[in-house]
Design goal:
alpha/beta, binds guanosine-5'-monophosphate, Rossmann fold, 4-stranded mixed sheet, globular, 5-stranded parallel sheet
């Protein structure tokens, strides 16, 4: 994907966060259609699957014990507790792919993204490959409308997620790129354009024939 004649590059680790309801999953869905070869990292979680979600496709659904065993074995690039559940990204979902020049898309929360940023200080692959993108909803009112419109969460969960969203929004300055997601078509197109810029980055070039 990141290949050009005479130029060998590492892939990009696209670390994408934003409050629940900002439209990340719709952007991801559209990106899958636009770039079928793009790899989406499958995270581990201890939350229950929602209707239609599949193990190994949407998430690896683990028990708390299974998750904690993987923490102890150091298998996660990052993990965090979000809404009373564990979520985490496995090193195995990312490292081989970016080394082979493929891009990998990580839809993770702010705590996880910041762990990757910190880890990048000692980890060369993360330092070269990770790029941080924040997706924001156009307004609080719109966010509330989207969260309620989903109809998949209980009122308690919606209220919790709205509170969380307000505090998550404060983190956008820690990211390198911001997409204000008014409409998912435009948001996905913007994400695609940012990806094209990632492919021109000098820091991921391994070899250039000249
Ligand atoms: P959901 O339960 O709606 O699928 O995801 C809830 C939140 O968890 C989202 O903000 C999502 O970005 C985040 N999330 C999903 N996978 C991971 C992961 O591997 N690590 C972290 N830190 N957050 C994740």
């Amino acid at each position: 994907m990141a290949e050009e004649k005479g130029c060998e590059r590492l892939g990009t680790i696209m670390v994408v966060s934003g409050p629940s309801g900002a439209g990340k999953s719709t952007i991801c869905k559209k990106l899958r259609e636009m770039v079928p070869e793009l790899r989406f990292s499958v995270s581990c979680t201890t939350r229950n699957p929602r209707p239609g979600e599949e193990h190994g496709v949407d998430y690896y659904f683990l028990t708390r014990e299974e998750f904690e065993t993987r923490i102890a074995r150091n298998e996660f690039i990052e993990y965090a507790r979000v809404f009373d559940n564990y979520y985490g990204t496995l090193y195995s979902e990312v490292a081989d792919r970016v080394n082979a020049g493929e891009d990998v898309f990580l839809d993770i929360d702010v705590q996880g993204a910041m762990q990757i940023k910190q880890r990048a200080a000692e980890d060369e692959l993360l330092r070269k490959c990770a790029e941080f993108v924040f997706i924001a909803p156009p307004s609080y009112e719109e966010l509330e409308k989207r969260l309620r419109g989903r109809g998949t969460e209980t009122e308690d969960v919606v209220i919790k997620r709205l509170g969380q969203a307000a505090s998550e929004m404060a983190n956008w300055p820690k990211y390198d790129y911001l997409i204000i997601n008014e409409c998912s078509d435009a948001g996905a197109r913007r994400m695609y354009e940012i990806m094209q810029a990632f492919h021109c980055s000098c820091k991921r070039i391994r070899k250039l024939e000249f």
